[in-house]
Amino acid sequence: MLAGSVGGLARWAVTDRHGGVSEPPYDRLNLAEHVGDDPPAVAANRARLLAALEGARGVAFMRQVHGRAVTVVAAAPGEPPECDALVTATPGLVLAALVADCVPVLLADPDAGVVAAAHAGREGVRLGVVDATLEVMAALGARATRTRAVLGPAVCPACYEVPQPLRTQVAAVAPAAHAVSRWGTPALDLRAGLAARLAGHGVEVTAVGGCTVETPQLYSFRRDGVTGRFAGLVWLADGRAA
Ligand SMILES: [Zn+2]
What we know:
With 242 residues, the protein is an alpha+beta fold. The protein has a single domain, classed as 4-Layer Sandwich (CNF1/YfiH-like putative cysteine hydrolases). Helix content is 23%, strand content 25%. The chain has six helices and 13 strands. Strands 4-5-8-7-9-12 form a six-stranded mixed β-sheet. A five-stranded mixed β-sheet has the order 1-2-13-6-3, with no helix packed on it. Strands 10-11 form a two-stranded antiparallel ribbon. The longest helix has 14 residues, at 39-52. The relative contact order is 0.21. The mean pLDDT is 96. The structure holds zinc ion (ZN). The site of zinc ion has 6 residues, from loops.
């Protein structure tokens, strides 16, 4: 697990395959319920995750649909909301974006006490899910110029060949996403596209981790098809829980 802090009590982490109980092809720390894994195994993995996070009291997941909807949560919802970004100002509530090649985008304005987790694949980049997320954060008192973003591991441009019309469509919105694959064919650099969008709002961006396709300890849908999901996580540590 990669982990760090964003000033004050804001924390982020990115999981990998290690430390869970799922059997192949989901081995081992699959955190997604929708990929065909044994539900008790996913529940056990999620419980282990929560126990491993400092100052965490619950984890909010979402039903991701490659859109731009953002949900504000104050507690872990019983049913995951249908959206691609979660925002909270509640200490101890961990926000999770599940991925296997798409980009987990973790945002925090520690001074405002507002954090957000977004799931951004090529549709998310095209539809501006991070822009929508920053708007909702602002409504809760966050400022983009004070906000820091961590972009977790994702498919790299060398591995992410796409049809030319698709590259054109995404690059029209995020020119920095225009890329060429290792085969010299049209490709997308999702993290570069997102980093440029965020920087345009005044957000300070850090990318962590490498390419999912090239990293066996991470799940990659493009590499494996049927597989699990790892998570990008962000939360305001609850000092009382420490
Ligand atoms: Zn790659």
